Amino acid sequence: MSAHRDSLSAGLLWTAPWWIGFLLFLALPLGMSLYISFCDYPILQPPVWIGAENYAALARDPVFYQVLWNTALFAIVSIPICTAVAVGLAMLLNQQVRGQAFFRACIFVPNIVPLVATGIVWLWMLNPQHGLINQTIAAFGARGPNWLDTPLGVLASLVMISVWSVGSGVVVYLAGLQEIPEELYEAARLDGASRPRQFYHVTLPGISPIILFNVIVAIIGTWQIFALPFVLLKMTAGPERSAYFYTSYLYDNAFRYLKMGYASAMAWVQLLIILALTALVFWSGRRAVHYRAG
Amino acid sequence: MARPSPSRITRLATYAALVAVAFAYMFPLLWMLSVSFKQPAEIMETPPRLLPRALTPSLSLDPSSFPASLTQPETLAAYRAVFRSESFDFPLYARNTLIIALLSLIGMVLSSAIAAYGFARIRFPGRNVLFAICLATMMIPFPVIMVPTYILFKWLGWIGTFKPLWIPAWFGSAFNIFLLRQFFMGVPRELEESAAIDGCSRWNCFWRIMLPLAKPALAVVALFHCLAVWNDLVGPLIFLSHQEQFTLALGLQFLQSRSGDTPWNQLMAASTLIVLPIILLFVIAQRTFIRGIATTGIKG
Fold first, then answer.
1. Is 0.80 surpassed by the pTM of this model?
2. Half-sphere exposure of A223 toward its Cβ, with a 13 Å CA cutoff?
């Protein structure tokens, strides 16, 4: 029994900040964008209905397929690597040693560096002549590549930077590792389980819901990647357009070529792809993910 | 002969691995700092020196020359150049960023808390459906609504003003509402009910009982909001049109891309000026940071 009288109007009043904002800044733009995606709309003139022409044009656009491929490739390469590194670092940082807080801070801090600064720092790290990476390679007598001049180099650079900013994932996995009851490890040891088996049968199932959650967040994040390649390649598409991602192309269509209708069609395709991928990950995770009972 | 026990070897290996990894992760930032103190010619040296000449204590005569070197004109030359530069007005951009952060912060914390309280405590028909919609909106990334949002703000005459960057914050964010609702749900109802019997209104219950209790959660929301404003590039890039309105992130991006041959030491000095407050904030609020990420899994 609550001492206050609850009612629909009270509920709507209290939640008003959210639902007014939702209607104004999300539902309205989403609706508008659906409408605009069926229009020719060069922003300076009013929108003109052209039916599904934007979607048909997308289906014929080779650049669209290239940014789709670039984005998918980056997700396929970077998400498993970043997940593995994050879990590994979390296990390392979970060891009870002196200075633990300091080590954790060192791994975490790169994650909160503004992306523009990250881009500038790494541009210098990756500099073919004076960058530290090629200087290190040179110290071993080899010659480092011109990182940002080839598609493979661009991919490697972006993955390297993602691994560097993996800190928040590490903190999340660390929290997950600390949730796993010590008794499970003791029981495993009593049964004679080796360290790899303990990892496979206790650690991994213990943090699998967090891995699933993080992978979903990472997939959604990949479709938003924009600022980092924008800074690294100075607002160009990179060699053979290899640093041109879905959102970069969407941005260019909207704000460089002023093709608002075309960009909106891209946005809706993007939304559907993200929903489909998320559903797929959830569905495939149902078997692989272990949820503790209770 | 005493042989080190295996556990000691493991311990040593763990330490070695931790030191190596921590160094690797800090290195790019240390190098940024180092380059920002270097002279243009010194930057191109092979092999590079981690400790800039100006900060290397001279072994020859006077060890006390080390702190004095900070005041020598050439050490901070890059910083001085950044402050004088026409293409990167640091004080102005810092002021703009802080204005946006402050204006949006108040709204974000207040509105998210009010809506979260509504979802946590008011029983009303349709509440669960509304909350499910609220959760679902977290799935929608900004690029999807970027174009119509721009058009909407253009109609409203907000393009080229700070308004697009702070007014939407006054309607809360799904994520923060979710976070605070979880917190409010964990507070025992009895606290409010006894107050309500004493004639405390719903608003007063929220304002005087729940909000003070929620300080740790509100701190997480505030911290991550400030961080997001400080780091945001896309919002200012799309919505601002005059250079005198730029935020630090956007200003740095322009310094890097537009002015072509800005010397590296100046770029690094400008980057340091932007990164340093974030690191200070982290040092001060480390616990809040870690708690926030561990409970929510958000990317900073």
1. yes
2. 24
